TrEMBL record:
Protein name per its UniProtKB record: Sugar or nucleoside kinase, ribokinase family
Entry GO MF terms: ATP binding; kinase activity
Naturally occurring in which organism (per UniProt): Mesorhizobium qingshengii
SUPFAM superfamilies, per database record: Ribokinase-like
Family: Belongs to the carbohydrate kinase PfkB family.
UniProt xrefs under Pfam families: PfkB (PF00294)
Domain Carbohydrate kinase PfkB per the UniProt entry, residue ranges: 44-314
Annotated keywords: ATP-binding, Kinase, Nucleotide-binding, Transferase
InterPro entries reported for this sequence: Carboh/pur_kinase_PfkB_CS (IPR002173), PfkB_Carbo_kinase (IPR050306), PfkB_dom (IPR011611), Ribokinase-like (IPR029056)
Keyword hit for Cell wall biogenesis/degradation: no
Keyword Metal-binding: no
Superkingdom, taxonomy of origin: Bacteria
């Protein structure tokens, strides 16, 4: 079944124009985390969670919290984990009309440990979960019919079925004259999945805004230095490239040149979801016609706040909260 919601009030920019509708498709899951650094799943230990998660869900939730019209095509089980995610997205203003609830299927899960070197270890159940049942049904087609922009997450291209959904979303939005953004977000072990490399290059060929993290840029470029690799992307017809650099901030490239924006210094509690929050903020403000400087600044603020709480969505903030954080960080004020 699919949940139905009343249409949200239309959103407008300061000049009175409609705000563009942003849609993403992909996995919804919960994360359950080891409480202690260095803790292993090879022995019993304390856990915290469940937390709402899934890169597309984090992305859409952050966009919605910033006031961007945003909806998600996804599938969950008819269980507590699925309803936990749906209620978080609904509460934060996302369009949940195309999230299907499947009886007899379990919502996806990720169990996470934190290593002493700062890395993380995951035990996933995504492909075999309800997330693997995602499809372009009646509700998804209705959502896409009103979409101006489609965002693709590389993590969501984990099966031929999910690749087909991404292709359908891209084609529907492009047919309406809309735009596409692409965050590769690719783990090395995913690159050998059936059809993934072809899917990545198809998505890139349709991309207007490309958002790789550091070395992900070189999965797609022949060049071995950043600026030359970016030139390759721009020559392919991509209009904007934003390189995410974590705590160091981000760099924006387009035909007009290069714009760098530093990150904000915060105490990191949990890095999960920071890149998704950054991307959601940048895409939202790019769609609003913001300058690169403003879009990067808001995106860096969202990414910084995301790491200050345990749980992928727990650090997601409203635009007012992000702007207040940035003002305090830039003026050096403290409470």
């Amino acid at each position: 079944m699919a949940l139905r919601i009343r249409p949200r009030a239309r959103c407008y920019l300061a000049n009175g124009e409609d705000m563009k509708k942003l849609v993403c498709a992909g996995e919804i899951l919960v994360e359950i985390m080891a409480e202690r650094i260095g803790q292993s799943f090879l022995a019993p230990g304390p856990l915290v969670g469940p937390f709402p998660s899934g890169a597309p869900a984090i992305f859409i939730d952050q966009a919605a919290r910033l006031g961007q019209p945003a909806g998600l095509i996804a599938a969950v089980g008819d269980d507590d984990f699925g309803h936990l995610n749906i209620e978080r997205l609904r509460a934060d203003g996302a369009d949940i009309s195309a999230i299907k609830v499947h009886r007899g299927a379990a919502t996806g899960t990720a169990f996470v440990t934190y290593e002493t070197d700062g890395s993380r270890h995951f035990v996933y159940n995504i492909k075999q979960s309800a997330a693997g049942l995602i499809e372009i049904g009646t509700e998804a087609r209705a959502l896409l019919a009103g979409a101006d922009h489609f965002h693709v997450m590389g993590t969501s291209l984990f099966s031929p079925e999910t690749i087909a959904v991404a292709r359908a979303g891209i084609e529907a939005v492009k047919a309406r004259g809309g735009t596409v953004s692409f965050d590769p977000n690719i783990r090395a072990e995913m690159l050998d999945l059936p059809g993934l490399r072809d899917a990545l290059h198809f998505v890139l060929s349709k991309t207007d805004l490309f958002l790789p993290s550091g070395p992900e840029l070189f999965i797609f470029a022949r060049a071995t230095d950043e600026e030359a690799a970016v030139r390759e992307m721009l020559e392919r017809g991509i209009s904007t490239v934003v390189i995410k650099k974590g705590a160091q901030g981000a760099v924006h490239y387009d035909q007009a040149g290069r714009t760098a924006s530093p990150g904000f210094v915060v105490d990191e509690i949990d890095p999960t979801g920071a890149g998704d929050c950054f991307a959601a903020a940048f895409v939202s403000f790019w769609l609003r016609g913001a300058t690169p400087e403003k879009a990067l600044r808001i995106a860096n603020g969202c990414g910084a706040l995301a790491v200050t709480k345990k749980g992928p969505m727990e650090g997601i903030a409203s635009l007012a909260a992000v702007e207040a954080f940035i003002e305090t960080a830039e003026t050096g004020e403290t409470e």
